[in-house]
Amino acid sequence: MNTLTSTRVKEGLVFAGLISLVVLAGTLLSVDTVFANSLLNSSDAPSIITNATGGEGDAKALILRIVNYFLTFLGVIAVLMVIYAGVLYVTSAGNDDSVGQAKKILLYSGVGLLLVFVSFALVNTILGAVSSGSTTL
């Protein structure tokens, strides 16, 4: 298999994965909020979940807490990568390869931070709308 074919295969797999994620997200987001509210009732939560979430007996609150912790972790990683890129840039001593690598790391970590912020806003907005019982998003 030559490099062009293997590159095409990799691009095809990435594209198929992205399409699968879009279809899955569309399926999950198309659930009617009234139906979701009737499924996720705080009186149905077992005491283990209530104790593990610090008194939150609602499954939506548990999901929101888990997603927020995960996004916080990703934000910390992205900030550490920005710091690493800055140190690499400062210590490159004019080496073009190191400067290019530092700029690339800085660009990708900036994009990662932007995605974390947008994800945080979307998740909290959508789950906040479902939690309040609103039928409009």
Largest sheet: none
**Shape label:** flat
| Total discrete domains | 2
Count all strands and give the number.
Answer: 0
Overall pLDDT level: 75
* Distance between the ends: 49 Å
Order of helices and strands: HHHHH
User: In angstroms, what is the radius of gyration?
Assistant: 21 Å
**Beta-strand percent range:** under 5%
What structural class results from the helix and strand content? mainly alpha
Helix share bin? over 70%
Number of helices: 5
Low-confidence stretches: none
SSE map:
Blueprint lengths: L2 H27 L3 H7 L7 H6 L6 H32 L5 H36 L6
Key attributes of the depicted protein:
5 helices, mainly alpha, 137 residues, flat
What does this structure look like?
This protein has 137 residues and is mainly α. It folds into two domains: 1-30; 32-131. Helices cover 79% and strands 0% of the residues. It is built from five helices and no strands. The chain has helices at 3-29, 33-39, 47-52, 59-90, 96-131. The mean pLDDT is 75.
In short:
With 137 residues, the chain is mainly α. Helices cover 79% and strands 0% of the residues.
